[in-house]
Amino acid sequence: MSKEKYLILVSEGVTDCSLLEVLLEKFLDFLPYHNLKDLPEIFRQMVGKYPNVNGGLNRQDSPTFYHNDQVSVAVKQANGYSNIPKKIAGLIEVLEKEDLYAGFGGFLIFCDTDLKSKEEMIEIFRKAFLENDVLYENDALNVNDHTISCKLHLFPEHGNGAVEKLLLDCASITYPFLCEDALAYRREIMQDQYSDLRKKHWAKDIDIQEFYADKVQFGAVSSVLKPDRPVRFTIKDEIFHRKYEQQYQKVTEFQLLMQFLKENL
Q1: Quick one: CA dihedral 48, 49, 51, 56, positive or negative?
Q2: Helices (H), 4-67
Q3: pLDDT (tens digit per residue) in 101-133
Q4: E strands within 61-127?
Q5: Which of 71, 69, 68, 74 is nearest to 30 (CA)?
Q6: Which residues, at least 6 apart from 208, have a Cβ–Cβ distance to it below 8 Å?
Q7: How far is it, in rounded angstroms, from Cα 23 to Cα 156?
Q8: Verdict on whether the full-model pTM lies above 0.85
Q9: Percentage of the residues of the chain whose pLDDT score is greater than 70
């Protein structure tokens, strides 16, 4: 199934990747690949395999794969922002080893800033890429005499936070009453009587506790919509519906992320 361009979307964790996947499927009209034989060679090399060790059962992680008429996209989880440059460096090794640069459009990174500034995040990535023998500057990676496009979208555009803020903003459009009650639950958990519990199980820093409060609030929404499934199924199946797309577009961070994907895919 030959395409004109191949791209790899890389993000921190399962929540971020689930969001990217649902945007591709529900709002950008990408279709998932279902058969290994249909994958372009560049993506076949990325499919996880069981370790070649007697008795080994742990399967190496695989991306998810999507396509439209012109473009194929892999969505790759890095398990933390600090691992993103290392994951990308490993994928570049695959490109180099198999000589798969033809048609490769580059990498797109989606990452939370948390408590850092954009400038701090860019510098963190620059240093981490350099540790993996890759030069990162001006939205490009330079390695082995190749220049590879590498565009970065940091969330949020202004201030600090993690992706759950965006998910909650969109969920409040789809399920306003449920989200109001989840917000009340969050406020209760943030009361003084839970202070010791939060410090023990979340973090001592109150700013970091706010990030976890977003996760707890979204977890409350998810537990109602998908009581027997992980959060990623809530994101993929329940939070986003095409009939609300115009309302989602009024959420600034949704609009900016969609713009980033449309411009670069």
Answers
A1: positive
A2: 14-26, 41-44
A3: 888 999 999 999 888 888 899 999 999 999 999
A4: 64-67, 71-77, 104-112
A5: 68
A6: 115, 202
A7: 17
A8: yes
A9: 94
